[in-house]
Design brief:
mainly alpha, single chain
């Protein structure tokens, strides 16, 4: 083949590729589909549980998304129960909204006073707000409801007692208080340095 014929061959191949048949039909095997579609969505399938999603978002530190998920759980259930209020309060605590967290957790214990996790988390908020005496009473209530089985609640009670007994000598920055949720996960809140 001569060097003059090479540009003509190139132009012919380019034009063949631009045609509707393209090069893929005869030279390179079967033709690819015009467009690829994503797999379908089963609209009849059950969605994720918003309450569990909210708990997972709190555990991962996504507090704003957790509040949205707890709100959707309230809509799904048709009511705002103690677990939803506790979840919203815990998320607000993670965001540093101590007043809102305290309000939500107090509403939660009014709705269900039998859950030691809610009492414990309320105690954590009160300790963060400097209400040590009330927090100690709340931790005692959580400890009694739990029958002393939760290590996190026991540790929180111990820290609250130490802080209230040594209020003049204890430094506020080295205390760790643990939030507790239903299930196996523990949440730790550390005071800012």
């Amino acid at each position: 083949m001569t060097s003059r014929a090479l540009p003509y061959l190139f132009v012919c191949c380019a034009l063949a590729a631009c045609s509707t048949g393209g090069l893929g039909t005869s030279v390179f095997g079967p033709r690819m589909p015009e467009r690829l579609d994503a797999p379908g969505v089963d609209l009849r399938a059950a969605g994720a549980d918003n309450l569990e999603t909210g708990h997972r978002l709190v555990a991962s530190g996504e507090y704003e998304l957790a509040i949205r998920s707890f709100n959707r759980a309230a809509i799904d259930r048709g009511t705002v129960d103690a677990e939803i209020l506790s979840g919203i309060g815990t998320a607000n605590l993670g965001l540093g909204r101590l007043g809102q967290a305290e309000t939500q957790l107090r509403r939660a214990v009014q709705r269900d006073a039998t859950q030691p996790e809610i009492w414990n988390n309320l105690g954590v908020v009160l300790m963060e707000r400097g209400k040590n005496v009330e927090a100690t009473q709340i931790f005692r209530k959580a400890f009694a409801l739990d029958n002393g089985e939760s290590v996190s609640i026991r540790d929180n009670l111990r820290l609250a007692l130490e802080k209230s007994e040594n209020s003049g000598t204890a430094s506020g920055n080295d205390q760790d208080y643990k939030l507790v949720r239903r299930g196996s996960a523990d949440f730790v809140i550390r005071q800012a340095l």
